[in-house]
Amino acid sequence: MRQIILDTETTGLEWKKGNRVVEIGCVELVERRPSGRNFHKYLKPDCEFEQGAQEVTGLTLEFLADKPAFEEIVEEFLAYIEGAEVIIHNASFDVGFLDSELSRFGDRFGRFADHCTVVDTLAMARARFPGQRNSLDALCKRLGVDNTHRHLHGGLLDAQILADVYIALTSGQEEIGFGSLDEDGGQVAVVRHAFDASNVGLRAQVAPTAGELEAHAKRLDKLRSKGGGSCLWDLIETPPAPMEVTTASA
After folding, report:
1. 43 and 70 in contact (C-beta within 8 Å)?
2. Of 149, 153, 193, 216, which is the active-site residue?
3. What is the mean pLDDT of residues 99-120?
4. Distance between CA atoms of 224 and 88, rounded to whole angstroms?
């Protein structure tokens, strides 16, 4: 499964007022692990920053003057996200701006969602923590994600932080492939979009160590305490015994 964690920075709060995207930051996850294949671009807008926007991002028109325009990176960007599950915090904001940028090309590139599936972590957080603050900073504090290095908003930095938040937010048993529950308590299938994994190497099959099994058991106990004494993992067969590792003599 290929996922892209995405964040943008803009010249203001509303694309309808002519504001533009000035930074795109993306972090790629393959099977929930960072691949190292990230996407990061600063962009030159053709408008001024709204009052207060520069203080939030730390970006200036002088800094962005020699950066590419969106039209110069649009094809590279769309190729990068194509077919992926794109994870965004408060997705309507970023997608609105990206759709606005794409609309400048007429029908040539369509809309953002024509190229990928969008998942909104703000909606996920509101469902899990109703009535609580669910900003990125609030979620970092609640889920134990270190964001002490976040003094300004930045596309790539925020995408990296959101990747950690997303992994923490979806670490429960209902979010790791077992499905979720609908309003009536029924199972809802988890739909994943296929991606070409031909360039991803096979993982080594290694039996867990005694220490890893102990940590696993503690994690299951925690899940059982939240699930009324049981968890879905109990339906899976017992993992293999620890492997004895020997070193061949020369």
Report:
1. yes
2. 153
3. 97
4. 30
Question: Looking at the DSSP assignment, which residues form a beta bridge with residue 85?
Answer: 3, 117
Homologous superfamily (CATH) for 2-180: Ribonuclease H-like superfamily/Ribonuclease H (3.30.420.10)
Rounded to the nearest integer, the mean pLDDT of the chain is: 81
Residue 106, Cβ density class (10 Å: 0-12 exposed, 13-18 middle, ≥19 buried): exposed
Where in the sequence of the chain do the CATH 3.30.420.10 domains occur?
Answer: 2-180
**58-96 as b/e: b if 16+ CB within 10 A:** ebeeeebeebeebeebbeebbebbeebbbbbbbbebbbe
DSSP string, 208-237: PPHHHHHHHHHHHHHHHHHTTS--GGGGSP
Q: DSSP letter at 129? A: S
Residues 44-60 have a mean pLDDT of 89
Q: Is 149 part of the annotated catalytic residue set?
A: no
**Strand pairing report for 85-88 and 2-10:** parallel
The length of the chain in residues reads 250
Most confident of 62-66, 171-175, 211-215: 62-66
By 3-state DSSP, what share of the chain in percent is helix, strand and coil, each rounded to 5? Answer: 40, 15, 45
Give this prediction's pTM: 0.67
Q: What is the pLDDT of residues 13-40, one digit of tens each?
A: 999 999 999 999 999 999 999 999 999 9
